[in-house]
Amino acid sequence: MLTVFYILPCSAQGTVSDYRRAKQLKGAVEGKLYDAPIASGWSLDGKELWYEKQTPKGRVFILVNIAQRTKKEIFTLKELLGSLQNKLGHSIGEDALDRAKIKLSGRRLEFEHQGYAWTWDWEHKRLVQKYAIAREDRSTYWGWVPPNREGEGIPSPDGKWTAFIKDSNIFIRPTNDTTTIKQLTFDGRPTEYYSAQIHWSPDNKKIASSKVHPAAVRQLTLVESSPSEQLQPKLHTRDYPKPGDSLTQYYPVIYNLELDTLFITRVQELENQFSISRIAWRQDSRAISFEYNKRGHQQYNVMELAANNGQVRPIITERSDTFIDYSGKRYRFDLRDGKEIIWASERDGWNHLYRLDGQTGEIINQITKGEWVVRRVLHVDQQQKQIIFEGSGRERGQDPYFLQYYSIDFDGNNLRALTHEDGNHTATFNPDFSYFMDMYSRIDTVPRTVLRDRQGTVIMSLESADDSELQQLGLRTPEAFSATGRDGQTDIWGIIVRPSNFQENKSYPIVEYIYAGPHSSFVPKSFAINPNGMQELAELGFIVVQIDGMGTSNRSKRFQDVCWKNLKDAGFADRILWIKAAAEKYTYMDTTRVGIYGTSAGGQSSAGALLFHPEFYKVAVSSCGCHDNRMDKIWWNEQWMGWPVGPEYAACSNIENAANLQGKLMLIVGEIDDNVDPSSTFQFTNALIKAGKDHELIVVPGMGHSSGGTFGENKRRDFFVRHLLGVRPPEWDNY
């Protein structure tokens, strides 16, 4: 066990001692930030809060009584795990419990472990195994689609009837009678069938489903060369639609049992759909609503199908000249059974909330507005007509990505900042949203945790984190840095990470960690001593940076639109200006030696840096990259690159532009990656070979979507040391 983390002045970089320090860093800092909640939760009545924190004696659980304004330690994690280990007869790691599923009930903590529910009575130190937990048979694979052709019967709300699919058609029967069956539809067949995703109306008199026009689904085939359970390789397949592929089409239907009539939406009403989602009955059973995402993601509709006459009409039609960020910013909440709708939109250039008429879709009022963004709606209180939400960019003088919490009335009045301190806030609300635990920090400032009421008033200070042991290690906290972007006016934000033995009179190569996916922003904002493992890399003798350039999310629509049909841009114009501005301020940053690395979308961008910006970036390590957006999953790539597949796909392709490679490139890929098709990397290396371009390829057997694991990390560090420091890396066994 590491007890001392030595930091010694050293004139060289990339030495054995640097490698040892980098290797030991994670163990040296682990568990050294005290009194910062790690996990938390509320009792069902919202009157008590529990949280877990690290202390010098280990992890402990704290109980807070809201009414009494008290907090006390109730037990240590060691006590709980010790009892659990005695019951099971084997050792258990500290992170074996799923903190997200812990519940507080009276003087007991309820949790799940190894398929069973358990209760821990901390006052009597009594652990009881309760019951086996039923597991939902659902794949976690991104391309999983619920079974449509057949499934279990769906009972009506009153339990008297059961609807089911048989021979591609809809049938019903009395729930207690399996012999009396009525067929409702007769035109279903294997090539055009009714979906087993059946929805009964609240009044038990109508059934909603969809008529499905199936399309052939592309199969991704992967070969696992070295399976642990057998000698011979294994073949794996996944459903994996790619950009431009045909898609299954869904046409919502209603069968009105009173009228003995089927109503179905027509093809022309839902033409060229990317998806149909959120089919739901109105509470009075008058209609179903559903959402129609037109392929190309430039039109998104909320639709309604009437149950008594089959009329189909759009309630809300959202349009964009570029794209609608349906995967990241979609929000809808129906008020008064759909008579009004709270709706998120970027129609004024920023992501905001609107109150719309549920019949016409017309704006009743814009709820939030300004040059800032709503990030997430947490609660809609229909009685008080108030919304609680996360936002960022509103508090002037702060990092525009810092999360703050707000409440506002449905009519757009009484906007109240529930948090305001200069930091990134994380709130945990009780069930009725009358109180919340607020933990806030910055990348260079340790967390403080308080208890607030619904008005944002601090009613109790809970924790002030202690980083004194981290400071004793001599580590430097990362620095938040901003510079002006390509447009000469927009601030671009990132962080700078320096080695612990940093000396201003030395020259340091720069290594950028990149992830430029348009679906979010990625630079860490909360306190972290080793963000994304960047400190470990810095210890070898680098300045390591991470930046959110244009084309990423959580700023204005204009800021994000840079990515549209242009993923190769990856914000590089802003990144290069940012790094140059940092180097102008800190002259020890050497802009003639710049490396870059990333994974997945970051793998595409890091390799692209040497293809499209070789005048600046000299060395790149790319892990499991999507090197041609036509090779990757349909939903992510058509969202940003558009449909139909046009010449922009080839223009952004690393494969098509392989001959442009300059500098030193390493590619890392897992052989059974079912997130990004590994063939994307193999085709890229094939194109590089044909173009006579030197590079390195690392294929990791048995690995899925990953940066490469420990082996890949070692190869990446050595690659940067060799080509940016000009030093021969030490043998792995020597450190």
Mind explaining what this structure looks like?
The chain has 735 residues and is α+β, with helices and mostly antiparallel strands. Among the domains are: 16-29 and 478-728, 3-Layer(aba) Sandwich (Rossmann fold); 37-132, no CATH class. The protein is 15% helix and 36% strand. It contains 12 helices and 43 strands. An 8-stranded mixed beta sheet has the order 36-37-39-38-40-41-42-43, with helices on both faces. Strands 13, 14, 15, 18 and 19 form a 5-stranded antiparallel beta sheet that branches. The chain has a 4-stranded antiparallel beta sheet with strand order 1-2-3-4. The radius of gyration is 28 Å and the shape is globular. 42% of the residues are buried. Mean pLDDT is 96; it is low at 1-10.
Shape: globular
How many whole angstroms does the radius of gyration measure?
28 Å
SSE-based structural type = alpha+beta
**Strand arrangement, major sheet:** 36-37-39-38-40-41-42-43
CATH topology-level fold name of the domain at 16-29 and 478-728: Rossmann fold
**What is the CATH superfamily of the domain at 16-29 and 478-728?**
Alpha/Beta hydrolase fold, catalytic domain
Mean pLDDT across every amino acid position = 96
Low-confidence residue ranges: 1-10
Main beta sheet: 8 strands, mixed
State the name of the first-level CATH class of the domain at 16-29 and 478-728. Alpha Beta
Overall helicity: 10-25%
Write down how many β-strands occur, each being a DSSP E stretch of 2 or more residues. Answer: 43
Put simply, the count of helices is 12
